[in-house]
Amino acid sequence: MSRLEVTRLVKTYPVKVGLWRQIRSRQPSVQAVSNVNLTIEPGEVVGLVGESGCGKTTTGKMLVRLEKPTAGSVRLDGTDIFQLKGRELRSFRRRMQMVFQDPYDTLNPRRSILETLMQPLRYLGLEASAAAQRERALEALDHVELGALGDFSNRYPHQLSGGQRQRVAIGRALVVEPDIIVADEPVSMLDVSVRASVLKLLQRLNRERGIGILLITHDLATAKFLCDRVIVMYLGKVVEEMPSSAMPRAVRHPYSKLLLASVPDLRSEPSGPREHLDGAAPSAIDPPSGCRFHPRCPLAVPRCSTEEPSLRPMGEGSHMAACHVL
């Protein structure tokens, strides 16, 4: 199993503007990810949580080399993944896999399920014969609990439900026996009735095979169910990191608390109006000075608008938060 270490990761995208504006002023840019640090220990499940546009998906894509960082490093067992070439790069492709959010768009409609699962084996040269590739693909179907439901191998994506397609996508990642899977909102496009089964599948694969997982989600409740640690992002920045066992009791950052309050509790009647986030997140092209959350924060003080907080320990253990008022 492998250890992934991310250090001061930055991703900036230039914003397209007219020629006249380029001449008169500096070209604007969006800093989607700003100085993010995280680690995934062997066999660990880490949750990356935040609203849409906070930079969590961009972070996940950089971890599997689908995006190149503007600055910072991503190291797998001490090796910078952006320096890999040739055979080492191919080995990295096997060890790091990604499951995308939309199961409807991530499967080739012209390929059968069997062909979909065999294709990574051909690309990475993991099995010499077609028979061996087929056997390994069928084993992957069994691992994602589709093998016993009939002959799925000869079906096509349009013949499957959303939950079944996402299981195939997980099987495609699993067939190459990865060390770490980056799962980007793997259940957000699925019906509520099948979300729990897909999350339990990921949980079982982690426990039985020791696969590390980075779970990207907007839902703190989902992260608590599956993850060992939870990292909360806001507008490209990490604002809190904590063990999932500390949730919800020890959540400290105002943004994390509001995210948690936005999750309805179906076990009890609401005792009053729920807290909610006011307004939309500020523009990433022109983020607020100081703490990026201060325009929406109910606890903001004057210092928050001028001085950017850094992550600091919150009591004992590995709990950290970036907030001036805590």
UniProtKB/TrEMBL annotation:
Protein name: ABC transporter ATP-binding protein
Biological processes, Gene Ontology terms: peptide transport; transmembrane transport
Feature: compositional bias, Basic and acidic residues: 266-278
Lineage of the species this protein comes from: Bacteria, Pseudomonadati, Pseudomonadota, Alphaproteobacteria, Hyphomicrobiales
SUPFAM superfamilies the record matches: P-loop containing nucleoside triphosphate hydrolases
Domain of life of the organism encoding this protein: Bacteria
ABC transporter domain sequence ranges: 4-260
Alphabetized PROSITE patterns for the sequence: ABC_TRANSPORTER_1, ABC_TRANSPORTER_2
